[in-house]
Amino acid sequence: MKLSADLFCLRFNEWTPFQYLDYAQKIGLDAVMFPDPDFFETLEDAYLQEVRAHADSLGVAIEVGMYSICPTSTSFSNRRGTADEQLRDMVRVAHVTGSSAVRCLLGSNADRRTETPLSVHMQNTAATCRAVRAQALEMGIKIAIENHAGDMLGRELKQLVEEAGPDFVGVCIDAGNPLWVGESPFVTLDHLAPYVLMSHIRDTAVWPHPRGAVAQWVAMGDGTIDIERWSRRYMAECPNTIFTLEIITSLAPRVLNYLEADYWAAYQDMPAAEFAQFLQLVHSGSPYTLPTLTANWGALSPEVKPALAAQQRSMLEKSVKYCRDVLGI
After folding, report:
1. Measured between alpha carbons, how far is residue 248 from residues 148, 261, 272, 309, 315 in Å?
2. With 90 as the cut, is the pLDDT of residue 100 above it?
3. pLDDT at position 20
4. How many other CB atoms are found less than 10 A from the CB of residue 129?
5. In what side-by-side order are the strands of the sheet with 243-245?
6. Domain total for the chain?
7. Which domain holds residue 184?
8. Is the Cβ–Cβ distance between 202 and 248 less than 8 Å?
9. pLDDT on residue 295
10. What would the pLDDT profile of 273-323 be if each residue is shown by its tens digit?
């Protein structure tokens, strides 16, 4: 299985695509994911072909992605056109760069609390996928929808894929995001393994809190969710995919206030048996105490950004070593 990194976890380094590829080859990665069009200087075919040629010369494969394709999501931006237009463009980008799929997403946890029900957001996401079906099939590109930032549970994303069309739509499974919605990543994998096309993998520490639990994303091997067991299951059940690291350690710990009534307004259909598996992780966990720098990403000072960039490199390299030495990837 190839080992990769989503360049989102290195974004504070602010390199060119060619520099990201050079670094990936230097630390021993087999592939990289460009998660958003903004990581490219332009989406013109000639430029993308230069990027692909450089990647080929290094022996590094490319995967590509984008942000929200749901026109009603709080995360959607029309800066690059309608949802259909943006996804069509990225299918082309995938074709030119050699990516077999386009990673995309519905939105975030905020979409579970909007006046528009989550089910409507899901329907609109599926409609965007179906609008590009002919082009995607013609070019041999699939659509990989991520369980992103607390937007959908595993069972909900499975439902979305089935509605959109599993012949060309699948999943970019994220191992860290389930902990933001009170779901064990093992439950997420149970639901989504047959549909996985891409991955975002990182470790998480979880532990009890007076309001419920705390979740902190950490480097591979530093968490409490048994990422080794999850990873071995992933490799066994999704053998034809790439093991893509998305190591995010600079966000503050997240409190899940499931001991308060307000929390459940967004999770009224959460199965008790599945939530119990999350509780098992919480009560077997312990606080994360290793030194780490966290910050408000929306208000980074000139002094903080270089420190975060250095930490991103350090934590990714630590995680690559874990994958090589412990997982044998």
Report:
1. 14, 29, 29, 11, 8
2. yes
3. 98
4. 24
5. 196-200, 169-174, 142-146, 101-105, 61-68, 31-34, 3-6, 243-245
6. 1
7. 3-204+225-249+292-325
8. yes
9. 92
10. 999 999 999 999 999 999 999 999 988 888 999 999 999 999 999 999 999
Task: Calculate helix-pair angle for 118-131, 83-97, nearest 10 degrees.
Answer: 50
3-class secondary structure, 166: coil
* Residue 10 falls inside a structural domain: yes
Average pLDDT, the chain: 97
By three-state DSSP, how is residue 263 classified? helix
pLDDT per position as a tens digit, 13-36: 999 999 999 999 999 999 999 999
Kindly state the tokens that stand for 274.
Answer: 């599945």
* CA 173 remoteness from chain centre: 7
Is the pLDDT confidence value at 205 over 90?
yes
Question: How many CA atoms lie less than 13 Å away from 45 in the CB half-sphere?
Answer: 4
Is there a domain that residue 275 lies in? no
What percent of the residues of the chain are helix, what percent strand, and what percent coil, each to the nearest 5? 45, 20, 35
According to DSSP, the β-strands at 31-34 and 3-6 are parallel
Residue 133: which pLDDT band, with cuts at 50, 70 and 90? Answer: very high
Structure tokens at 79: 């800066």
Segment 175-203 shows an average pLDDT of 98
Edge-first strand order for the sheet with 203-209 is 203-209, 212-218, 254-256
In a domain, residue 265? The reply is no
pTM for this structure? 0.97
CA distances from 289 to 164, 191, 293 (A): 43, 32, 12
